[in-house]
Amino acid sequence: MPQFAQRVGRAKPSAIMVIAEKAKQLKAAGRDIISFSIGVPNFLPGAHVYAAAREALSHDSGQYGSNRGADALLDAFLQHIEALGFSGYGRLNLSIGIGAKQVLYNLAEALLDEGDEICFAAPYWTTYRDIADIVGAKVNVLHCGLEQNYKLTPAQLDAALARKPRVFLFNNPSNPTGMVYTAEEIAALAEVLAKHPDTWIVTDDIYNAMVFDGIGYHNFGFARPELRERLIFVDSLSKTYGMPGWRVGFVAAPEAVAGAVTTLNSNHITSVPEVITAAAVAALTGPQDIPKASCAEFAGKRDIVLAALAAIPGVVCPRPQGAFYAFPDISVAFGKSHRGTAIANDLEFCAALLEAKGVACVPGSAFGEPRAMRISYTCPTAQLAPGLQRIEEFIAELD
Question: Among 7, 99, 267, 392, which residue's beta carbon has the most beta carbons within 10 A?
Answer without folding.
Answer: 99
